[in-house]
Write a structure and sequence with these properties.
There is one protein chain. Helix 1 packs parallel to helix 7. The chain is about 70% helix and about 0% strand. The protein has one domain.
Length: about 180
């Protein structure tokens, strides 16, 4: 039995997962004053995953070879089979800017990716208020990127779902910005 999970579904699922994580975090914090370290961890990991997927998907819209780490080793058969090492975040952002002509510094998103790396490979040590600010700023960068560079490439049947998720995400960002610690 053949099984296929399209790239676009992964992006949508990541966005929805971030929204669910944000909802849970805000409910616990605003309702009970409880800081859920697990929810913050999941928000960071899922937001970093979303960023990576969005960058690669937008590069793919420009040309499939741009999602290969080494463009010189890009073959269409490896692309179709998914048998390749994909571009990393930093190189992907450089390609978006230099090849696609997209202005997207993703400065807050880069901080989230650093948090992600610390969580995955060592220990995350930071100031909680700074993490929340960086999460909020990164989500603003991602929604701006999605509205400007992703929505226009989506199939017609996906636009409405993505727009609803982006709207929900913006509501959570506004709530994060109003949190008091």
């Amino acid at each position: 039995m053949k099984y296929e999970l399209p790239f676009l579904n992964n992006i949508y699922d990541s966005l929805e997962t971030v929204n669910v994580d944000l909802f849970c975090f805000l409910e616990l914090y605003q309702g009970e004053g409880y800081l859920s370290h697990d929810e913050i961890k999941h928000i960071i990991l899922n937001l970093a995953n979303l960023l990576e997927l969005l960058i690669k998907w937008r590069l793919e819209q420009e040309h499939w070879a741009l999602i290969f780490s080494d463009i010189n080793k890009a073959t269409y058969s490896n692309y179709i089979d998914g048998d390749f090492i994909s571009v990393d975040i930093k190189s992907g952002i450089i390609r978006l800017e230099s090849i696609c002509g997209i202005n997207c510094s993703f400065s807050a998103c880069k901080k989230i990716y650093q948090y992600r790396n610390r969580l995955m490979h060592y220990t995350l040590n930071s100031i909680f208020e700074q993490i929340i600010k960086d999460l909020s700023d990164a989500m603003c960068e991602i929604t701006k990127f999605m509205e400007g560079e992703i929505i226009g490439y989506l199939p017609e049947e996906a636009i409405n779902d993505f727009m609803k998720s982006i709207y929900e995400n913006k509501k959570y960002v506004n709530k994060l910005k109003k949190l008091e610690f």
